Amino acid sequence: LNESIDDEDEVLLVVAEKLGSFDKYLGGKDHIACLFQPLESLATVEEPTVREKAIASMCELAAKMSDSSLETHFVTMLRRLATRDWFTSRISACSLFAVAYPRVSDSHKAEFRGMFGQLCRDDTPMA
Question: Which pLDDT does position 43 carry in this prediction?
Answer without folding.
Answer: 94
